[in-house]
Design goal:
Chain B: This is glutathione transferase. Two copies of one chain form a homodimer. By secondary structure, chain A is of the alpha+beta class. Chain A contains ten helices and four strands. In chain A, strand 3 and strand 4 form a beta hairpin. In chain A, helix 1 packs antiparallel against helix 9 and helix 4 runs parallel beside helix 6.
Chain lengths: ~250, ~240
C-alpha cells in the first residue's frame, strides 16, 4: 500500500515532507487538504489526524504527524535515502536534532507569526494583527541572525557546517520561503541582511531541484493574488461571500 | 572525561535531563547555572552555549543543547539505557518524536508562559503580565486536554498507551510539575480536571524515584519564597540585592 501524504503546499512543513519524498524517490500519494477551505476541520480528516494538522502521513495502518518526526521516520524507514539527510553518526544526528528543536520556538514561531499577521490572515478569514506582526518580526529577525552567525558557522554550504543537506536544511529553508508571499519591501527588509541565509536557500534549491521550485510555485500565485486584493481594496473580512471568492482563486 | 550537565533545577528541561541520567546510572557532573542570577548571560557560559540556555551538555569535545536532542543522544549513546526510554522500534520511536515535537508549541509554551507571567517573573526581574498569562492559560488548558484525550489513549499509564515510561513522559511531566510554584487556587483550577494527567505524574514519579522528588524539591522552596514575598509586599522587579536573596 502506497504511502499517503496529507498536505497543503501552503504549509511550510508539508512542502518539506513532499520535497524529501520526491528527492529520495519515495513513492507516495499526495492528498490535498486545503487549509483556506477549512478542509483540515472536516470529520474525515479528523479521523486521519485528531490534531487536525498537515502534514500527516499514513503508511499502511501507521499514522504520523509533526513534520520533523515524519522526516526522521522516512529517512530511517526507507531504503535508498542517502545518509546525509539524517546521518547514522550520533554526534551529527544530535546536532541536527538540536537545530530541528530550536526551530519550533524560534524561526517557525517568528516566520509563521509574521507572515500570518501581516499578510495571510485575511485569506484564512482572520483579521490582520499589526502588534502580533511586530513581535513576530523581532523573533524572526533574531532567528535569522542566529542562523547566520551560529547554525551556519563552519566550512560547509549547509547548516552545522555540513557539505551536504540534511532534513534540518529542508525544514528551515521551507519555512523561510514562506516570506515569498510578503510584499517586496517587507521581504527585503527582513532577509537582505542575512547573506549566508540567502546562500543556504540557493544551495538547498540546487540540491533538491526541480522539486523545490515546483513545490514553492504556489507561493508566487498567492503573493500575486494578495497584491490584487490589496489594490482592489476588496479585502472584506466580514463578508463570507468575498471570502469564498478569495479561496477559490487561491 | 565525565559528562558535564549545565543546568538550573528551576528549568523544566534541565530536570528531565538530570533525572534521566540518575535513573540510568549515567555518570555526570552537574554544573549549576542560576538563571535568577543571570549566570546564563556570563561570557563563560556563552563559550559553552552561545544560545545561552540550559540544559547544555559537554561530552568530551562534544557540546549539545536542546533537551530533547540531549535525551535522545544519551539514550542512544550510553550503554545500559533500557529500550523503553527511546525504543529502537521505528514506529514507537516516531510516535515519541511526534509528542516531543508537539510539546514545544503546546504544553511547553502554555505552561512556561503561564507560570512566568502569573508567578515567576518578579524572581527574574521581569514584570507580571496578566494578559500574557491569560493567553498562556488557554493554551496550557487546551494542551492538558489533548494529553488527557489523545496522548494518553490506550492501555498503558504512560504516553502513547505505553506500559513503560519514555523520554516523552519525562519531558512533559517535568513541564507540568512547574505548576507547583503557583498558588493552590490556580494550580487546582488548571490541573484538577485532568485525572489521567495527574495519574501520569504519579506513574512517572514512581518510575524514577527517588530522583524525581529530589529534583523537584526546589519548586516547593520557590513556592514558599514567592508566597512570603507576596505577603510581605516586597516584590519589586528592580532590586538586584533582593533578587540574589
Amino acid at each position: 500500500m502506497t504511502l499517503k501524504v496529507y498536505a497543503d503546499r501552503m504549509s511550510q512543513p508539508s512542502r518539506a515532507v513532499i520535497i524529501f519524498c520526491k528527492v529520495n524517490g519515495i513513492e507516495f500519494e499526495e492528498i490535498k487538504v486545503e487549509l483556506s477551505k477549512r478542509q483540515h476541520l472536516s470529520p474525515e480528516f479528523k479521523e486521519i489526524n485528531p490534531m487536525k494538522k498537515v502534514p500527516t502521513i499514513v503508511d499502511g495502518r501507521f499514522k504520523l504527524f509533526e513534520s520533523h518526526a515524519i522526516l526522521i521516520y522516512l529517512a530511517c524507514a526507507f531504503p535508498g535515502v542517502a545518509d546525509h539527510w539524517y546521518p547514522a553518526d550520533l554526534f551529527k544526528r544530535a546536532k541536527i536534532n538540536s537545530a530541528l528543536d530550536w526551530h519550533h520556538s524560534n524561526l517557525r514561531r517568528g516566520a509563521a507569526g509574521f507572515v500570518l499577521n501581516s499578510a495571510l490572515a485575511p485569506a484564512l478569514g482572520l483579521p490582520l494583527n499589526p502588534q502580533a506582526a511586530a513581535e513576530a518580526e523581532k523573533l524572526l529577525s533574531a532567528s535569522l541572525g542566529m542562523i547566520e552567525s551560529f547554525w551556519l558557522k563552519g566550512n560547509g554550504r549547509f547548516l552545522l557546517g555540513s557539505s551536504q543537506p540534511s532534513i534540518a536544511d529542508l525544514s528551515l529553508v521551507c519555512e523561510i520561503m514562506q516570506l515569498e508571499v510578503l510584499d517586496e519591501e517587507d521581504r527585503n527588509r527582513i532577509l537582505s541582511p542575512h547573506k549566508k541565509v540567502l546562500q543556504l536557500i540557493e544551495e538547498t534549491r540546487n540540491a533538491t531541484r526541480p522539486h523545490f521550485d515546483e513545490l514553492h510555485a504556489i507561493l508566487y500565485k498567492v503573493k500575486a493574488r494578495l497584491r490584487e486584493l490589496r489594490v482592489a481594496g476588496t479585502m472584506n473580512r466580514g463578508n463570507p461571500g468575498s471570502r469564498t471568492e478569495l479561496q477559490s482563486k487561491i
